[in-house]
Each structure stands twice: as structure tokens, then as C-alpha cells.
Amino acid sequence: MPQQKTAWGRLPGYERKALPAFRGWGVMLGPGVVWLALAQGSGELIWWPWLVAKYGTAFLFLLVPACLLQFPLNYAIGRYTLLTGESIWQGFIRLNRWFALGLWILMTVQFLWFGAFVTAGSTGLAALIDFPVGWSQPAKTLFWSWLTIGVLFPALLVSPVAYRLIERLMGLMAVVTFVGLLTACSRPEVLRALPEFLRGLVWPAFPPFAALPRPWDPQDATPLLTAITFAGLGGFWTLFYSYWLREKGAGMAALMGHITSPITGRPEAIPLGGAVPEAHADTRVRWQAWRAFLCVDSAVGIGGNILTTLMTSLLAFALLYPQGLVPQEWELVVHQMRFLEVVWGPWGRLLFAVVAAGFLSDTWLTTLDAVSRVHTDFVLSYFPKARRWHPRTWYYGIVIVLTGVTVVTMHFASPAALILLSAVLGFIGTVVFTGALLVLNYVWLPRFLPEAVRPHPIGAGALGFSWLTYLILASVYLSLL
């Protein structure tokens, strides 16, 4: 491979190869569905219903803009992978080794606590099923969490290609949740609240526009930040999109391998070895097709997330807010069981408890898989001596270690406290890596690309706007503490 000189040393350069042709919508769509389903595990089922249940429509007007802010991030992350075949973390390493190392350490700390999503999902089952008999709500929640991990962990280990398992599970859960929520939203008692809900969606309902329905609690600054940040995927979770695109073989990633592919399968990706499109007559046409796919796939995730978050927020406004029922600590999804109870009675409560447990447990499973991919990718790319072991050895070893870590850390505090801690760390990361995405995609990478695939200033402007907004949110968050 040719060598390219960077500001911090010499690295394996990019091979120039023909950009693969787009393989069709039916084959390629999928990463956005995983993105959507994973996003449903936090903002949709927990934090926006919590915020609406407590403060009504006061902050509801922030929901759609908060989701749309993530589109430029998704596009920039996907663009880098489609044009190089590399993961976004390999891009950060190319940009600056010390920056990438610091960001990786921050991400590592954040994901020490993601077992809280399993315990959050188990709160509904623990409240509904009195087993083990005589145990407290926290103890029963942890029991159901252990049981859930005991089922999901072996499924990940025995799946020949982990991404296929993740995509199918998350797609199924997304469909079940959507149908159930849509049915619940069609109930008369919910539809009566729709006009006021829609007014709050487009107009601020807090001072000086209106009085808050209850006094502001400074401790709610972190849940508010979490709801805004995770109105979508948010935090370091957003960077996983690069790996799902890579596993799907989108763009130049079709020339790379799978981290979890069998040893006899396709060759593994060479650390810090990517490929960029060569100047070819069909390059512009092919890139237009891939760019359209990237926009549509991202829109599937973000648009679906907006729709389902609006439905859970409407149900919270209609069913929880009038009664002052606010999800708390070890009961994060207990009150939300009323969402389907209005449709199917006690069976609806059970169905929601099972769906919530399944969704939030899938959030843990998908996060476990994605974080393990990131760590495997980063270690092999950053530390040359680590390449003495096969990538699959690293991947499955990290999966086992992270499972043990999350089983331990989910006992440290309530799921609400642990998810909020993770969200704050993720927001810090978002503020930092959004600026890096801007430099990587619109300053550093274009010099290696042919004219046909160089970025447009509109993309840089949109990503810069998102970055500025996150910086302003950070300032507002500090002022609310």
C-alpha cells in the first residue's frame, strides 16, 4: 500500500479502488432499523415519557429538533465509512492518535454502566410478577436481569454472524412496539389529549411563555439533558452506526471483512488500511446512489424514532400526567404499562412489561456487541502488538469481560441513576466528537478523494450547526444545575 504522511506520523495509506455499485434497497436497508430499535431503549420508553409525565408539554417542543440534530452526525459518520471502508474510530486515529485515545478512554468509562438498561427493562416484570416471592422490588428486578442476561449472552456467543442476530431481534421488537403504541394512541381517552399535546409540540410551555405545571427541580437538569441527548440514539451510541454500515458492506466497506466472521470466511480488515474511490466514469453516479441510501437509511432510524417517541409521550401526557404518575428509580417502566392496559386490560400490562423488558434487554445486547466491536477495532488499530491474536479472539474475549462488568455494575445504584451517569458522559463525548467529525470529513479526508465524491459545504454547515447547538446545550445544562 502507498504511504500517506500525516501530521503525527506515517500510517498505512488508502488503496484506490472502484466504488462498488449500490446493491439494492432490499439488500442494504437495515442499519437504520437497528439504530431505531436501539434508540427506543432509552429516549422513547424512559426519558421522554418521564419528562412529559412530570412537566406536561413544557419541554415537548424540544423533542423533534433534538432528533433532527442527529441527522448530520449520522450522515458524517456514514459518509466516512462508505468512502473509506474504515470504521469511524479508525478515522479518529488517523486524525490524531492522542485525541482518539482520550475519546476511547471516555467511551470506555461510559459503557461500564450499560447493564442498567437490563435492570430498567426488568422493573416492569418485577412489579407485575411476584417472583421470587417475598423479595423487594430492587431484588426482584436484579433477579429478572440476571435471568435475561443468562438467556441473551449465549445467543450472542453462538450466533455465527452477530450482526444478523442483532438486526433481526431489533427489527422484530421495533415492529411489535410500533403496532402496540399505535393501537393505544387510537383510544378515545388518549385522542382527547391530542390537541393540547400538539400545541405543546410546536410552542414552548415554560416561562416566559407559560408557567411550569410544577416547580422546577434543579436535579431534573440531568434527566432533561438525557432526554434531549437521547432523543434518538445519542452519545457514543451514535458512532455504532459506522459499524453497522461496515457489517452491511455499504460503499467501500464491501471490500472489508467482518470482525466476527469465521476464520474460513472473508478476510479480516487490515487495521488502518482502507480504500477510497478512484476517479472513474461511474464514480459520481454510484456515489449518488450510495448517498441516497445513506440519507434514507438514516431517515428510517431518525424518522421512526420521532414517531414512536411522540406516541409514548402522548400516552404519558394522556394517562400518566393527569394522575401525577412519574416513573422513578426502580420503577422506570412500571407506570408505562398503562399504555397497553387501556387496550387489552391486564394482558396489555403483561405485554408491555414483556416488550419493555425485551427492548431494553436488546439494548444491552446490541450495546454489548457494538462496544465489543469498537474495542476490538480500536485495540487492533492502535496497538500493533495486539494483532498477534485473531480479531475474533479479541471480540469474544471482550464480550465476556464486558458481560461480567455489567453484571457487577448494575448492582451499584438504581437503573435511573446509572443511565443518567452514562448519559452525561455520552453528552460530553458528543460535544467532543462532533467537532472531530467536522474536521475529519470536511477538512482531512477530501484531499484523498476524487472530485466526484468530495463533500458539499451544505453538509459541513449542517454538522457545524449541530455542534454549535450541543455546545449551547452544555452551557444551558451547567446553568440549570
Helix/strand structural class: mainly alpha
Overall CATH architecture: Up-down Bundle
Anisotropy-based shape: globular
Percentage of residues in DSSP E strands: under 5%
The CATH topology is Amino acid/polyamine transporter I
Number of helices: 19
Strand order, sheet with most strands: 1-2
Kindly describe this structure.
- The chain is mainly alpha-helical and 481 residues long.
- The protein has a single domain (15-269, 284-480), classed as Amino acid/polyamine transporter I (Up-down Bundle), CATH 1.20.1740.10.
- It has 19 helices and four strands.
- It has helices spanning 25-28, 31-55, 63-68, 70-84, 88-95, 97-110, 116-128, 137-158, 162-185, 188-191, 194-202, 221-229, 240-248, 283-320, 338-344, 346-382, 391-409, 415-444, 457-480, and strands spanning 3-6, 9-12, 14-17, 274-277.
- It has a two-stranded antiparallel sheet with strand order 1-2. It has a two-stranded parallel sheet with strand order 3-4.
- The protein is globular, with a radius of gyration of 22 Å.
- Mean pLDDT is 83; it is low at 1-12 and 261-272.
Provide the descriptors you would attach to this structure in a database record.
two-stranded antiparallel sheet; mainly alpha; 481 residues
Q: What's the gist of this structure?
A:
The protein has 19 helices and 4 strands. With 481 residues, it is mainly alpha-helical.
Blueprint of the fold:
Layout lengths: L2 E4 L2 E4 L1 E4 L7 H4 L2 H25 L7 H6 L1 H15 L3 H8 L1 H14 L5 H13 L8 H22 L3 H24 L2 H4 L2 H9 L18 H9 L10 H9 L25 E4 L5 H38 L17 H7 L1 H37 L8 H19 L5 H30 L12 H24 L1
Parallel strand pairs: 3-4
Antiparallel strand pairs: 1-2
Helix pairs in contact: 2-9, 2-12, 2-13, 2-14, 2-16, 4-13, 4-14, 4-18, 4-19, 5-6, 6-18, 7-8, 7-16, 7-18, 8-16, 8-17, 9-14, 9-15, 9-16, 12-18, 15-16, 16-17, 18-19
